[in-house]
Amino acid sequence: MAHDPDSAHAEAEDAERERARDERTTNERGFGARLGAAVKEIVVVLAMALTLSFIVKTFLVQAFFIPSESMQDTLLVGDRVVVSKLTPGPFDIKRGDIVVFEDPGDWLSPTPETSRGPVLDGVRDALMFVGLLPDTSEGHLIKRVIGLPGDHVQCCDAEGRLLINGEPVDESPYLKPGVEASDQEFNITVPSGSLWVMGDNRSDSSDSRFHDPGGTGDKGSVPIDLVVGRAVVTVWPFDRMTTLSDHSEVFSEVPDAGSNRSLGPPAREPHTS
Fold first, then answer.
1. CA-CA distances (angstroms) from residue 101 to 53, 163, 225, 268?
2. Which of 12, 108, 128, 146 counts the highest number of beta carbons within 10 A?
3. Whether 94 is catalytic
4. Exactly one of 57, 68, 70, 84 is catalytic; which is it?
């Protein structure tokens, strides 16, 4: 039987085209499988990262944005701080600690809500929720702990210094330069389970002093249950990155609450006009 060269050539071309189609199909399927695997891996990694970030924010640390001048010059408007949630908890709050706490009630003035649109607002809220963006501090305040439960805190002695359990304290290491310890006199005892807090910029800080109309410490003190954590480091802007000190040396001579010295020398008596 005679062999047709043209027919054989056509069959060979058909076979080559078929092989090429099979190879393309295999490559396309392989690429699709690799792409699908890569996308799946990215989704899993992102989910794990978001979950880890949420766990860290909930139990360990959280970032906050500084919105006011009440803690100048220690903290400036626009600073971002990292707050450790291990205090209070495994670690006790100490005098001098800088703490973030929830508004005990009407300490904050109402602020108008700013919106960038539902999509951007939703993305921002989601990122703050999982801890990838700093909290804008709405509903939170940041102050320095001056008095612990049971402490007797007075303003001021003849030299203008606060007295804590009868011991005068030199707050110059953290007070804003040129600012007095307090321009408002008070004489209070911190209730059990609460803290007496004040800003480092005493002339521009709505703190415990201004929320205690009875002058006893009951209303102006912050329940420890409302404390979110202790501010430990400024992380933004980079040129202000630093750890935040509790200035323990300021309080090193303060006796424990209830000691024989806690009543201390007489301070200037609060006056009314």
1. 21, 24, 9, 30
2. 146
3. no
4. 70
Give domain status of residue 262, yes or no.
no
Rounded to whole angstroms, the Cα distance separating 266 from 264 reads 6
Tell me the per-residue pLDDT of 102-113, one tens digit each, with 9 for 90 and over: 999 889 875 555
pLDDT for 106-155, tens place per residue?
A: 898 755 555 556 655 555 555 554 444 445 556 899 999 999 999 999 99
67 and 26 belong to one structural domain: no
**254 neighbors 163 (Cβ within 8 angstroms):** no
pLDDT in tens, 199-256: 999 999 999 999 998 889 999 999 999 999 999 999 999 999 999 999 999 999 999 9
- The catalytic position among 143, 182, 208, 221 is 143
Per the domain annotation, does 7 fall within a domain?
yes
* Dihedral sign for Cα atoms in the order 173, 179, 180, 183: negative
Q: Which domain holds residue 177?
A: 63-108+117-251
Using 50, 70 and 90 to split pLDDT, how confident is the model at 4?
Answer: low
The whole-model pTM stands at 0.72
Q: How far is CA 234 from CA 116, 128, 175, 241, in A?
A: 27, 18, 18, 5
Is 40 one of the annotated active-site residues of the chain?
A: no
Q: Which of 43, 59, 75 is the last residue of a domain?
A: 59
User: For residue 69, is it within any domain?
Assistant: yes
Residue 181 · residue 160 · CB < 8 Å? yes
> What pLDDT, in 10s, does the model give residues 6-54?
565 556 666 666 665 656 655 556 556 666 666 666 655 555 544 444 5
Residues 49 and 81 in one domain: no
CA–CA separation, 151 and 97 (whole Å): 15
CATH number of the domain that residue 200 is part of? 2.10.109.10
